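In this notation, each integer encodes one residue's backbone shape. One such record reads:

___
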Amino acid sequence: MFKNGTIMQLGQVVADIDGQMEILHRDFGFGPFEVHIFDGRKVKDSMVRGKPSDHTYLCSSCWLGGVQFELMQPLVGRSIYDEYVEKHNGTGLQHVKIYYNDVKKEVAEYGKKGYPVTQSGGIGEDLFYYLDTEAKTAGVTIEIGNASSVPPPDSYFPEGATAKPFVKRPLRDGDIMQVGQVVKDIDKAMDVFFHDFGIGPFEVFTFTKERHINPMVRGKPGDHTFICACAWCGDLQYELMQPLTGSSVYTEFLDRRGEGLHHLKIYYKDVEKAVADFKAKGYGVIQSGGIGNDLYFYLDTEDCCQGLLIELGNAGEVGPSDRVYPAK
């Protein structure tokens, strides 16, 4: 199903899981969701920051192609989900989960690298470990897990639905293809992700005024420049963005929330038609542009989707990168 070291899941912390499922299912085609109440009945050996924990939370998940999308709503007790909301000034994308068959062995290996466990537990045969990574990864929490079987969900959303299975690529309209992170030092971030977590090599592009096709920010021509680095990790592309000059959704994010996971990107072959369809649903474009034949459009979703920014793209050809990291 997965190869060791590949990204299998993206997770978002929310304040209202039912409201988020409703919007994501109705307007963006996410789901159906499997919904669990994770408490002492289901979670074994629950630990937070080295101490046994009795925190409870709602969790729902669905597959979009080869990537699982997960929502977590904390209910009772203290957890790293609460810490995320406090540190990043609200709900939003919280973690990237990497698959390992022998996850306990990897926990020990990451511990040797200086990444202790902040939260862990087991649900059926499924084991999960959140690592203390934010300080070194510029705001990203990395979870590792073995993707084993879990007990049946408490419910489905929408009611009466059955969950979609994992689907191997190629990309289909509506699939998640990318997760993006805003950073202040892209070379430092690439170094950590490549050497400590095996993500990379990265193709690096500089979006200059001469190269950036028709850049727009909040309805006006954009004069911003930024560096972008991309690497595939399993069925998901990992993207890093470092703003250089001008104002953009990246500088807005840094000012408001600090470094961290910024967006998820959904694939559409005819992305301009998809933009028009989402506009009819009330989702305007806050930033757009292109490089080569690749077009991108960030939708105005953060407020209605509890901190989640959704980008649309066509995965077009971008041409040769300016450089590759690491160079060798």
About this structure: The domain at 176-325 is CATH 3.10.180.10 (2,3-Dihydroxybiphenyl 1,2-Dioxygenase; domain 1). The helical segments are 17-28, 80-87, 103-112, 186-197, 249-257, 271-280.
